[in-house]
Amino acid sequence: xxxxxxxxxxxxxxxxxxxxxxxxxxxxxxxxxxxxxxxxxxxxxxxxxxxxxxxxxxxxxxxxxxxxxxxxxxxxxxxxxxxxxxxxxxxxxxxxxxxxxxxxxxxxxxxxxxxxxxxxxxxxxxxxxxxxxxxxxxxxxxxxxxxxxx
Length: 150
What we know:
By secondary structure, this protein is mainly alpha-helical. The protein has a single domain, classed as HAD superfamily/HAD-like (Rossmann fold), CATH 3.40.50.1000. It contains 9 helices and 5 strands, in the order ααβααβααβαβαβα. A 3-stranded parallel beta sheet has the order 3-4-5. A two-stranded parallel sheet has the order 1-2. α1 runs parallel beside α3 (41-50). The N and C termini lie far apart (47 Å).
């Protein structure tokens, strides 16, 4: 319970919040989506709740806890695809880490790198580029444009 209380405090202080545009993007999406994370299930729930994303994601989230192995092993991504009822090739993974991009590639899924989080540095963005993603997104509006090109 201390973790949950600390996360709520962080959310209230603005330290733990959704990436700008995340709520709007999830409200806008008309295609199936889910979250597949290395974060523990407990922590993932509390982070999504604190960032006001849990209601939008619902039960469509998967943790490395669910499968017993962590990324770069692709198992959590493959589990998510299976439960969502789509093939690996139908998925588009948006990842903000080298480990996550490696998991997407290992799963034979399409992937884009998200380099617009507060913790991203130019060095990390360069590391993300080495995985040759379909796109390196610096904000979530770019993802919306990628999903619905003019």
